[in-house]
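Weekly structure sync, notes
Attendees: PL (lead), two postdocs, one rotation student
Agenda item 3: pending single-chain targets
PL asked that the sequence for the first pending target be pasted directly into the notes so everyone works from the same version. It is reproduced below exactly as submitted, 628 residues in total.
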Amino acid sequence: MCGICGLIYNDVSKSVDPSMIGRMCDTITHRGPDDVGTWVEGNVGLGMRRLSIIDLVTGKQPISNEDDTTWIVFNGEIYNHDELRRQLQAKGHKFKTKTDTEAILHAYEEYGEDCPAKLNGMFAFAIWDQKLKKLFIARDRIGIKPLYYFYDHERFIFGSEIKAILQTEEIPRRIDLQALDNFLTFEYIPAPLSILQDVKKLMPGHSISLSNRQLKIKKYWEVEFNLNEASEAEFKYRIRELLSDAVKIRLMSDVPLGAFLSGGIDSSTIVALMSQVMKQPVKTFSIGFEDSTYNELDYARLIARTFKTDHHEFIIKPNAVELTENLIYFLDEPFGDFSIFPTYLVSKMAREYVTVVLSGDGGDELFAGYDTYIADRYYRKYSMIPASIRSKFIPGILDRVPPSSQKKGIINKIKRFVEGSTLPEDLRHVRWMIFLLEQEKSKLYNNDMKYGILEKDPYKFIRTYFANIDYLKHDATSQQLYVDIKTYLVDDILVKVDRMSMATSLEARVPFLDYRFVELAASIPSNMKLRHHQTKYILKKAMDDILPHDILYRGKQGFSIPIKNWLRQDLKPMMTDVLATEKISREGFFDPSYVEQLKTEHLKGIKNHSHRLWALMMFGMWFDLYMR
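Predicted structure, written out during the meeting:
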């Protein structure tokens, strides 16, 4: 696992300053504390920071081919590199290391721009082809590893994180107001946008080639929902077989490894399958809370006992969130998902014992694990209630009921459902993943913000993905799964896991997102994923002979923190400072009086504005760090 960066001038007479590549590398030291490597020749400079996982001795990057005409920097892991190596050696390629990085380089020599399709892993890599004077960059199919870039037709700059790009001279720091609107609406910024107008994200499953000043972006993979008519028994067998293999190949490591364990079905499945392969007890790591409604440690302990793991726990207390300003540095963009904190802290704890962890991320998006899928089904019955009652009477009653302090109290669920039900039906379950409504934006945004957003439909990127999947061919649940894989998974879940694990120099691997398993899951009919109101039906059936019943059939909790309570208590001073009226006015995006209203209503317990307030706080702290 590494962080990568680079700079290429189109003008071949202009030389890259080696010290600039060094500064770019320095900003991402946390991604690779073990080593640094740079290669600069004329108008091209490549850099990397290395976290040594495979081939600890000879795996130093950048790596070149036999005659030093092609160079690569690489972030990630290629799990089929041994097999790929054998194939390439049979074709005459000579290897000088045992690292997976070199396998990519020779695959490029053999297959050209089709080489990403030969790789099974998580990756972002950049190859400079000296003979063709071409830069080739690719990102893995699902988007597990990040890649940002800047191109102004004079120079191309890339990096695993935005902060590396910002080390070069005269990068414009102009906020993309569309990205800011998307962030406040969804709590993440969808690719290819970034918070900066001039910096973009390379989309998952895409590659870039730059040659003769021409930048070309190409899609090399797409998840296809080609439903298979196999029996339930056959799908159970194939799920176990393929997921077991996905786990097994991710145990490839020359350093200690373990697993995150929340006690949910996904992480429990990964730990169970690891236990069947590993000769020593799996090291497991769990996070908990003093607030019992947020605590899942009892379930994690049940799995630890069942599979006799070497288990470690940590209890989060509100003072742990003093880490906020440090975490902003690692995020690079405003990011509103509360679960960055437990993810960071469990990563920090795990890093004391291991260098690699396996994680259960991706199971919800593949098998319809979120409550929002169920909410969409409930809405079909709810919509039969007369519109006048749904639009006025029910919301009026709920406005008089104060929110619950519990994580998922019944009042909180009903309020969230009714709020989402007011949004357009074509958004389907995404309605319950939206945190700032249009009527609220009209009060929050000042005129410059309102008129500066070029795309007036804040849901356009969601609607575009729905349009990409054939409505006539696919059922509603398959369409929603496709949209989640393309949006929430890549730009929220995977961003959180990558940034927070890398902040502690820990590599996180995600077996559920082995592209072969993703393709298998996409072929399973929806009624085997969401059966009546039971989520993950077929995954539970596939694991019911090894996982405890209490794990398989308990309600979903989610990896979150009691932020709504903390904002009224320990975090109140921070909120007061970051969202001070004079500061909001000075930044010039929002109406200070409406922000003050949100704060007052939340502090008095009248309404739960935690999502809105936290997003505003995250933007304000990001702004202070990156824009001043």
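Discussion points:
- Residues 562-628 form one domain.
- The longest helix spans residues 476-502.
Action: rotation student to compare against the earlier draft before next sync.
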